[in-house]
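Let us practice reading a record.
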Amino acid sequence: MAKAGAPSVVAVGSGRSAQTRQRLVRAAIETLRSDGYARASARTIAQRAGLNQSLIFYHFGSVADLLLAALDAVSEERHRVYSTEVTGAASAGELVDAAEGIFRKDLEAGYTTVLVEMITGSAATPGLGPAVAARIRPWRDFAESTLEAYLGGSPLGGVLPAEEVAHAVVALYLGLEMLSHLEGDAGPALALFARAKQVAALSESLPRSAIAKEQR
């Protein structure tokens, strides 16, 4: 069974078929979070769902496609949460605060672990890499649009292209998640958020003329 607070899954189809898909997707999410990609077999997922493993292939075609459906479900849920969190941020400092809160929640619940495990698994599963990469692109777009809202009105907007910063933010976020789990210590990652808040405060205090001078 999935843990309490597991992401909601959009039902496809109706009735018992939709319920079966939901159970399999939730079981796949929990398996990725708890056991990792290497142990996310049809047998393991089916046992966690309390279903026959043949249903995985009937509903999804393959284990890989089920795991991608699990990633989609997590991504959809987290996108709703992220959008809500960052919408209320009125400054770069508040945006960093929102990002830190999101990181803490994701780290505790293991949501980002699902994506990290899928990235890890893509190295060993032919054809999986492009499918996972396609699912990361919307997160870069989300980060870019969010950053544009702040960098566009900031003195740093002229020297920090939102697209490039967004790429760095997504890569850094995933790296921090991986290292925090590997080391069992989120302290260094949280320290970076503290530094980022200092940089945000500094950038907001700089007059545009100072940045323009640096660009010349």
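A brief commentary: Confidence is low (pLDDT under 50) at residues 1-13, 209-216.
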